[in-house]
Amino acid sequence: MSIPQSATGTVENYSQLVQFLEDGCKCHTDWGIGTEHEKFGYDKKSFSPLPYEGETSIFSMLSGLRDTYGWEEVKENEKLIGLKRGGSNISLEPGGQLELSGAIFKNVHQTCNEVSNHLSEIKMIADNIGAGFIGLGASPDWSENQMPMMPKGRYELMTPYMRKVGKHGTKMMYRTCTVQVNLDYSDEDDMTKKFQTSIALQPVSTALFANSPFLDGKPCNFLSQRAFVWTDTDKDRTGVPNNIFMDNFGYK
After folding, report:
1. Which residues have CB under 8 Å from 80's CB, separation 6+?
2. CA 24 – CA 187 distance, rounded (Å)
3. Is the pLDDT of residue 3 over 90?
4. Which ranges in 132-187 belong to alpha helices (H)?
């Protein structure tokens, strides 16, 4: 969940939603690729998840990155909840997972370099404060009660909602991580093909890169606990709607 972008106005009719997608079209010469990269932080002495405040904490990570590498602060209610630099953002997932919302690049090699540089900065600050980070799809040991809640208003709203609409919603929020890719499209047909292809390939990529076989300190029944939680998170917002593979699928 990247840092929300500013917006003005209200949605008053259906056509505005369609227009929003149409406005996203780009000429293929202007296409870019962006990466979102999440990871868990932990205290190297106690092996517990990083709290928001304290000597070895999320706040220490953010302030260290700010002071050492020139990131600018992003605050909510006077709390430091993210950073920005150039076209990149660093934001917080509900349980303190640190997320890079990368800039737009022309090719996958450039976005790979961005992630590598980001991880080097993370390691430098983490080493200084006694923290470590792991890139797993699910927290291998920590219970939900052990996970802190980051000081963002949206998470105060989401947490009770998720407990009402599925069995694994809060597990998804607090105990999982992922890597995501953002792609451009030239028109409605191009968007449709890319969307349908990515949905069709998702089970394959999940299997190829599955790396969350542990939960609550022991092997679970899945190689990807991260994928499993989405089977019962919020059926109004997850799953594969039947219309995606219909001939008339598009912006509407």
Report:
1. 59, 62, 63, 66, 73, 74
2. 9
3. no
4. 153-165, 169-175
